[in-house]
Amino acid sequence: MNDAAVQKLLGKIDWDFPDSHSNYGLHSLHWYPGTFIPQIPAYLIELFSERGDVVLDCFCGIGTTLVEAVRLGRNAIGMDVNPIATMVAQAKLTFFEPGNLRRLSVAAEEQLDVLCLRYGLHGDSDLFRRIRRAHTLKNEGEFEVLKPWYHAETWREMLAIRELVDQQCEPFRRVCESVFSSIAKACSSQREHWGYVADNMIPRSLIYYDAVNAFRFGLRTNVDAFERFLETPNLKDRTVSELNTAARVLTVNCQDMGEIEDQSVDLIVTSPPYLSVTDYMKSQRLSLWWSRYSVEALREIEIGARFKRTRTKAFDDYLEGMTKSISNMARVLKSDHYLCLVIGETEVQRKSHQLIDRLRNIVLEQGFCEPFGKIQRTRTRERLKSRQGAANDEYILVFRKA
Ligand SMILES: C[S@@+](CC[C@H](N)C(=O)[O-])C[C@H]1O[C@@H](n2cnc3c(N)ncnc32)[C@H](O)[C@@H]1O
């Protein structure tokens, strides 16, 4: 297709896809701030790549681009510095032979029943109360930091589920870890949005949430979502082992993409962190703690994190991080192939930094051209509400490597 035809197609699209659902199937399994609506990467992948091509998302978050790439018959590489994001992305891209995931989930639910009995959970008779008093849960000391976030009974249930997840073997363990992480915030007593968790605002009053049932429900939702995904017409002729090798997910700082060979990628579709809008790492504080990570150690690596906004060098550091990342993108992308960036303009302390134009210049200096100009995406109120952690106006920037 020539440039004029592509330009026409890009201009014709309403990039907010107002008539489409965005939170469905595999995309709905775990919350995360500022995720793509899947229609954006899907459209760009179909327009700028072929079946069998390699699509890279170097800020992949929970893997929206990767899932869409695999659905469309491409191979995918995703990277992100947040280990919860990559764990979830990896779990979404782990496929089982027909019936196996359902069987493993049923067995896990039965194991959970046994743990509930052993620890006297989920029952209110005298017997349950006596068992409760007699048994300290495994790992109780290890997760002490999480205790103030949960009602005492929910806390005991979460510990039992943690024990269950630790007992599972790969690759099913990955699915369980992702389900467990998906309920960590919902079962806590912090009812406000994730910003409160990011800012370490421990709940004032503790409310009971049934973590055991939330986990069961999460497992069943995963099973249904995977079964439906595998029914996608595009995937019918692909074996499970082919699908399992179609995507690679790396937990790395994308300022250092050493694992990816020069000129090995056919298309990059990515949405970098916006400057000072979101704390991706801190938003997953509870999941990180439950997965035995240190939030403090990891958060510094995050480009553009909101908590760094008052630092005098916040903007320069952001540009430096983005410059290194973009030069890596230039190295791994094949010549004459496309880099698509979805990015929003943000204000820091009421000052606009003309961020988008600066980022465009960085990309152009790396030997790219911009054949189609800046494409604006104005989001409806509805979309903004459902995807906290992104700017009002976003742009889709498409560059071609010389
Ligand atoms: C806008 S989000 C991407 C969301 C993704 N498109 C999705 O649908 O889930 C930006 C991502 O950049 C990641 N990130 C920030 N600094 C990074 C770095 N130095 N290396 C790799 N990823 C980084 C954040 O953890 C976050 O997941």
Q: How many separate domains make up the residues?
A: 2
CATH architecture of the largest domain: 3-Layer(aba) Sandwich
Mean pLDDT: 92
Return the CATH class of the largest domain.
Alpha Beta
Helix content: 40-55%
- Strand-pairing-aware structural class: alpha/beta
Descriptive account of the structure:
The protein is α/β, with parallel strands linked by helices and 402 residues long. The protein folds into two domains: 3-93 and 246-401, Vaccinia Virus protein VP39 (Rossmann fold, 3-Layer(aba) Sandwich), CATH 3.40.50; 100-228, no CATH class. It contains 17 helices and ten strands. Strands 1, 2, 3, 4, 5, 8, 9 and 10 form an eight-stranded mixed beta sheet that branches. The mean pLDDT is 92. It binds S-adenosylmethionine.
